[in-house]
Amino acid sequence: MSRLRLPRPRLLWLVPLLLLAACTAPPDEEDADGAPYPWPDQAPGERWQPPPGVGWQWQLTGRLDLSVNAPVYDVDGFTTTKEQVAALAKAGRKTICYLSTGAWEDFRPDADAFPKALLGRGNGWEGERWLDIRRPAELEPLIAARFDMCRDKGFDAVEPDNMDGYRNATGFPLTAADQLAYNRLIARLAHERGLAVGLKNDLDQVPELVGDFDFAVNEQCAQYRECDRLTPFTAAGKAVFHVEYELAADRFCDRSRELGLSSLEKRYGLGAWRKAC
């Protein structure tokens, strides 16, 4: 189901230097119960696997707040610095690198590397256009370079966005099979770099893709009464990071806890403000 698209604030992309100054106070190393989050030991080369119900923070705009008491941070891969990722890791936080893999963004430093023939219709966000995912030979090296950046900055995982183009008016005749093939390519590229990877929305393909992805990220499943469709992830011991924008937390948190979701109430701008279940 297509979600409401509002203009994303562009200040984040224009003033990344603000983020360089954001490492003011290190985050609290404790979880909500006052004890360090009990991450299991990882063997060398083993990917991180976030468990159901783990707390998180999702911030893509504004001055990055490193003081939020959450074991997992999902932040912008381009504007978040290697030093910020290291500060979060030192405090026991796991970090997810947000990137768009299904849409082109004119404000990214690698925008000119994308051939014009790959660009489709706008996806509802200013400066963004859907990509023709039927052309993996051209897209693979571009996405691989982005994942290399996430790995080199020290991230534990990636959140690839715009993973359900086939359900939207992209300007290309995309099919469900096209989307499955592309999403599996994205998962492979992440795994080859030792990164965990999340399936963003794309609820119709959860049954086919739960084995390829390490967690899920979902917007507004409570509002649209779809959260039960994410149970294949929690049943497999994999986290579902979930946000609502138009519902107050007290309207969905009880059900989220029953389902084992990691749920937040956020504002559409995805700044630092959050209300966790």
Residue windows where pLDDT falls under 50 for at least 5 positions? 1-33
CATH topology: TIM Barrel
Helix-strand pattern = HHEEHEEEEHEHEHEHEHEE
By CATH, the superfamily comes out as Aldolase class I
Shape: globular
How is the main sheet built? Answer: 9 strands, mixed
CATH top level class name: Alpha Beta
- State the total count of DSSP E strands: 12
**Secondary structure: helix percent:** 10-25%
Give me the secondary-structure category: alpha/beta
Query: Based on the structure given, which CATH architecture is correct?
Result: Alpha-Beta Barrel
Strand order of the largest sheet: 1-2-3-7-8-9-10-11-12
- Helix segment tally: 8
Mean pLDDT: 90
Percent of sequence in beta strands: 15-25%
Which value, in Å, is the CA radius of gyration? Answer: 18 Å
Total number of domains:
1
State the separation between the terminal residues, measured CA to CA: 24 Å
Question: What key phrases describe this protein's structure?
Answer:
disordered N terminus; three-stranded antiparallel β-sheet; 12 strands; 277 residues; globular; TIM Barrel; alpha/beta
Topology:
Elements: H1 11-14, H2 17-20, E1 56-59, E2 72-76, H3 82-90, E3 94-100, E4 103-105, E5 119-122, E6 128-131, H4 136-153, E7 157-161, H5 176-192, E8 196-200, H6 206-209, E9 215-219, H7 231-235, E10 240-244, H8 253-259, E11 262-265, E12 275-276
Helix pairs in contact: 4-5
Describe the 3D structure.
By secondary structure, this protein is an alpha/beta fold. It has a single domain (49-276), classed as Aldolase class I (TIM Barrel, Alpha-Beta Barrel), CATH 3.20.20.70. It is built from 8 helices and 12 strands. The chain has helices at residues 11-14, 17-20, 82-90, 136-153, 176-192, 206-209, 231-235, 253-259, and strands at residues 56-59, 72-76, 94-100, 103-105, 119-122, 128-131, 157-161, 196-200, 215-219, 240-244, 262-265, 275-276. The strands form 2 sheets. It has a 9-stranded mixed sheet. It has a 3-stranded antiparallel sheet with strand order 4-6-5, with no helix packed on it. Helix 4 (136-153) runs parallel beside helix 5. The longest helix is centred in the middle third of the chain and has 18 residues, at 136-153. The two termini are 24 Å apart. Mean pLDDT is 90; it is low at 1-33.
